[in-house]
Automatic annotation (TrEMBL):
Residues 99-320 form the BPG-independent PGAM N-terminal domain. Belongs to the BPG-independent phosphoglycerate mutase family. Substrate binds at residues 138, 168-169, 204, 211, 284-287, 359. It comes from Triticum aestivum. Keywords: Cytoplasm, Glycolysis, Isomerase, Manganese, Metal-binding. Coiled coil: none annotated. Pathway: Carbohydrate degradation; glycolysis; pyruvate from D-glyceraldehyde 3-phosphate: step 3/5. It catalyses: (2R)-2-phosphoglycerate = (2R)-3-phosphoglycerate. Its cofactor is Mn(2+). It comes from the Eukaryota. Residues 18-542 form the Metalloenzyme domain. PANTHER family: 2,3-BISPHOSPHOGLYCERATE-INDEPENDENT PHOSPHOGLYCERATE MUTASE, 2,3-BISPHOSPHOGLYCERATE-INDEPENDENT PHOSPHOGLYCERATE MUTASE 1. This is phosphoglycerate mutase (2,3-diphosphoglycerate-independent).
Amino acid sequence: MATTNWTLPDHPTLPKGKTVAVVVLDGWGEASPDQYNCIHVAQTPVTDSLKNGAPEKWRLVKAHGTAVGLPSDDDMGNSEVGHNALGAGRIFAQGAKLVDAALASGKIWEDEGFNYIKESFDKGTLHLIGLLSDGGVHSRLDQVQLIVKGASERGAKRIRLHILTDGRDVLDGSSVGFVETIEKDLAQLREQGVDARIASGGGRMYVTMDRYENDWSVVKRGWDAQVLGEAPYKFPNALEAVKTLRAEPKANDQYLPPFVIVDESGKSVGPIVDGDAVVTFNFRADRMVMLAKALEFPDFDKFDRVRVPKIKYAGMLQYDGELKLPSKYLVSPPLIERTSGEYLVKNGVRTFACSETVKFGHVTFFWNGNRSGYFDETREEYVEIPSDSGITFNEQPKMKALEIAEKTRDAILSGKFDQVRINLPNGDMVGHTGDIEATVVACKAADEAVKMVLDAVEQVGGIYLVTADHGNAEDMVKRNKAGEPMLDKSGSIQILTSHTLQPVPVAIGGPGLHPGVRFRSDIQTPGLANVAATVMNLHGFQAPADYETTLIEVVDK
């Protein structure tokens, strides 16, 4: 392999040495103004002024689908692929796309990961754990169906599913249909002599799918049901479980309590035991890492596992490249090398990155090509502000926006950094709760944080680039084909808690910006991956030739 030439050529006109602030507003898309557009409803004078100021300094870019490496333009973007694209400057096949390709070619069955778990098929059970949903953000039902079918054709005689219901990336209540679909498949397998059934379940936000070590009790609830076969609710089958638990007051798919399926004698039909194989089938990493640690780490101490079965475990993908977690996986991850962060650090750009826990990994790990740690700790500082835990984010919608902004302001004014890079999570994390009033508060808080950062940029004669990773807060209602809000049976609007397919803004400015800089109008469909070359230009460098082209040009003024 050729060695990388890390030296970036100088930009012909843009100077080096200006402090550049890169601000990512998480979940901040651009949509028509109405009462369900929380960004529009909120008082956001700073981001409004960016949009309504110089038109050649504000534009929209694509943040979903093929622009971020996802299979189709029906796929909403997410923070992981968004930050990969922002940092890498190129588009890489992502999550679902990688899995689709491996399933279509049959490569998944030939690779090391599957052959490793296959060793357990003769005497043990194959357990599949993950989100049962067609949302395409964390997992996809059709892939799970193909894994079940493929494993049964290749020697799995006993299969147990441990399902997590969604209601966040898809409609609340859709869990019932997904369970019916997979139960049909399992019934057909049982007719063919394969002992295949659902063994446990629960709602994704209450069982298993916590992230960033926010609340280990979520993972423990899952462990107890999946591994120990213990849960507060016991049912003869999963359809009855989901329907009964959904009938409770205030119940929704995201927060269904854990349940286990039991036989006539009341015994769990599928605890994980010695000699079994386990696959976590989510392709998206962030909400599988904690369970992966519990399954794989011998010295795990976050909760009492009670019993640690000797299993063969593989993830759908590797969820953390630095921790090599899990060590076995069915599909290999995109190798993202030569990210913009690494180039800039190697060209002397001193870098500060900051967010709170829930998005800290996005401005570090995902930005840097799915890689943990520093490229050069003498030139980088990463600051994580602990997120609120034990509450839903609509209870404290301002989150840690102010603290992130204060740390960033101090970093800018210290003169120690050439780039500061931050993520303000409010629009996304509060938007996911579906609480419109709280999301309005969240957007205002993010806007105030932007003001603090831009004021500091002003003081040091720097440059800013403000963008987002995908949409969310700009549209909080489900819409019909005509774009009108959809109503449920009781006549209430159907709240949208998921990301959107909307484009996101990119704004540039600051006293250090060369007066001739403006956005180009000749790029057909610019996306998030075009931002990296743009940022390199603002630092006075030209981007590598294979990067997506810069969004800016310099004209004589």
